[in-house]
């Protein structure tokens, strides 16, 4: 699971109102390079939940992203920022670990890169 | 990539070894999968450099097709762990990156506007009534640009009406 996917996942247990973002417990993280597409990264920037991304990246061992979402001007002027964003979003893979609901503490296990978001009968 | 090439690659994918009837599992054939995604990209520009989600991805045929057509990011969702294992193998075999998520798509709320396009071959509702409409409703909530979905011919008008009236579609077409 990469952070681009984590950025859209939340806890859907019945009654939970504060299920985003899921905290990452990283067991095994691997890095796989993919081609850098600056236009795509620029396009994604506005759509991301920034705090979720920064915290998620940190949990996976990558602390290079700025704490606060930078001004959009940086997208044109700073290629190294775009490359960091690219790396965080697309090149870090959580292979083993868990996604944890911030409200209930419920753990959604991640095995072989696949998070299991299936709810138990009493959670639906 | 040429259509024939795409069709050929999809034809080599592993499919369900023990399809689960209650989930309406069956492979999306390479002929239709290749044409569906090829049209989505060539006529509408909805695949290359886009974030594509595959709802009910099964063994990953549509996901792999999207990745081969250079989607920027592909995420496959399915409820069945065996299918997801096969899908993972398929992605590795063709050397494409796909994130997979195990879930009940009708109970999963995805945040934000990250997904551009949803592609899917959903259950038709022959086992669980209304499954096709549940998948369509979920897809319409998630996709910021377009949904490409396979349905029974007999339901064409019903689906078009529901998409326009209930699911906030700007337009609905049979391709």
From TrEMBL, chain A:
Superkingdom of the source species: Eukaryota
Family label: Belongs to the TRM112 family.
Full protein name: Multifunctional methyltransferase subunit TRM112-like protein At1g22270
Organism of derivation: Camelina sativa (False flax)
Lineage: Eukaryota, Viridiplantae, Streptophyta, Embryophyta, Tracheophyta
From TrEMBL, chain B:
InterPro entries in UniProt: DNA_methylase_N6_adenine_CS, rRNA_MeTrfase/Polyamine_Synth, SAM-dependent_MTases_sf, Small_mtfrase_dom
Keyword Coiled coil: yes
Keywords on record: Coiled coil
Residue span, Methyltransferase small domain: 44-139
Coiled-coil portions: 84-111
Lineage: Eukaryota, Viridiplantae, Streptophyta, Embryophyta, Tracheophyta
SUPFAM superfamilies for the chain: S-adenosyl-L-methionine-dependent methyltransferases
Organism field: Camelina sativa (False flax)
Protein family (similarity comment): Belongs to the methyltransferase superfamily. PrmA family.
Matching CDD domains: AdoMet_MTases
A Pfam match: MTS
PANTHER family: RRNA N6-ADENOSINE-METHYLTRANSFERASE METTL5
Protein name according to UniProt: Methyltransferase-like protein 5
Coiled coil keyword on record: yes
């Amino acid at each position: 699971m990469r952070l681009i996917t984590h950025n859209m996942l939340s806890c859907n247990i019945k009654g939970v109102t504060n299920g985003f973002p899921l905290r990452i417990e990283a067991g095994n993280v691997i890095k796989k390079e993919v081609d850098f597409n600056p236009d795509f990264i620029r396009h994604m920037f506005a759509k991301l939940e920034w705090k979720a991304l920064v915290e998620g990246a940190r949990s996976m061992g990558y602390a290079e992203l700025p704490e606060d979402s930078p001004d959009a001007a940086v997208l044109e002027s700073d290629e190294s920022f775009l490359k960091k964003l690219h790396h965080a979003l697309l090149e870090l893979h959580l292979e083993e670990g868990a996604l944890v609901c911030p409200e209930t503490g419920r753990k959604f296990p991640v095995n072989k890169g696949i998070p299991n978001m299936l709810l138990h009968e009493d959670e639906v | 990539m040429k259509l024939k090439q795409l069709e050929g690659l999809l034809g080599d994918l592993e499919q369900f070894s023990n399809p689960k009837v209650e989930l309406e599992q069956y492979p999306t054939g390479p002929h239709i999968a290749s044409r569906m995604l090829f049209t989505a990209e060539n006529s509408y520009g909805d695949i290359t450099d886009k974030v594509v989600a595959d709802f009910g991805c099964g063994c990953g045929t549509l996901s792999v097709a999207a990745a081969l057509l250079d989607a920027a990011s592909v995420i496959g969702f399915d409820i069945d762990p065996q299918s997801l294992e096969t899908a993972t193998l398929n992605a590795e075999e063709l050397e494409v990156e796909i994130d997979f998520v195990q879930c009940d798509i009708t109970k999963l709320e995805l945040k934000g506007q990250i997904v551009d396009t949803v592609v899917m071959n959903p259950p038709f509702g022959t086992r669980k009534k209304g499954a096709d409409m549940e998948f369509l409703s979920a897809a319409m909530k998630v996709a910021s640009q377009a949904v490409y979905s396979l349905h029974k011919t007999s339901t064409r008008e019903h689906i078009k009406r529901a998409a326009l009236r209930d699911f906030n579609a700007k337009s609905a077409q049979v391709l």
